[in-house]
């Protein structure tokens, strides 16, 4: 399992980065193509510096990368980081599906439990 292989710090950085709506929106925008930090800043009612801080959080979580081109820094989605986040979420979903299946099995085994017939 990926969850078992990653340190708590890595998992915390990923979920912290994705817990904020602005950061999720930045990931969505740069997934369509690279954008400069100043270009990203035009979409949000916050300072350029605040957008830079959001990008830095995403970069630490490996969800985006920055590349300097001339005077601009282009932000782009990091497919490896996004794939890691997807695998983590898939594994958590599977854990909860297994728990729900066990609960369903236990309820089906309860004394007096009967399967309901669809009406």
Task: Explain what the structure shows.
The protein is mainly alpha-helical and 119 residues long. It contains 6 helices and 3 strands. The chain has helices spanning 2-5, 8-18, 21-31, 37-41, 48-60, 79-109, and strands at residues 35-36, 64-69, 72-77. It has a 3-stranded antiparallel β-sheet with strand order 1-3-2.
How would you summarize what this structure contains?
Residues 3-96 form the HTH arsR-type domain. With 119 residues, the chain is mainly alpha-helical. Helix content is 63%, strand content 12%.
Mean pLDDT level: 91
Helix content: 55-70%
Q: What spatial order of strands do you see in the largest sheet?
A: 1-3-2
Structural class by sheet pairing and helices: mainly alpha
How many angstroms separate the termini?
A: 41 Å
Strand content: 5-15%
- The gross shape turns out to be elongated
């Amino acid at each position: 399992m990926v969850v078992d292989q990653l340190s708590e710090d890595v998992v915390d950085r990923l979920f912290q980065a994705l817990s904020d709506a602005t950061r999720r929106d930045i990931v969505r925008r740069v997934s369509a193509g690279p954008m400069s930090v100043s270009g990203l800043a035009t979409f949000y009612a916050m300072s350029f510096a605040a957008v830079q801080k959001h990008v830095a959080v995403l970069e630490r979580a490996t969800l985006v990368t920055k590349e300097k081109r001339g005077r601009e820094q282009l932000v782009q989605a990091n497919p490896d980081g996004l794939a890691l986040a997807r695998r983590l979420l898939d594994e958590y979903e599977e854990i909860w599906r297994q728990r729900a299946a066990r609960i369903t099995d236990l309820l089906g085994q309860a004394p007096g439990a009967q399967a309901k017939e669809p009406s």
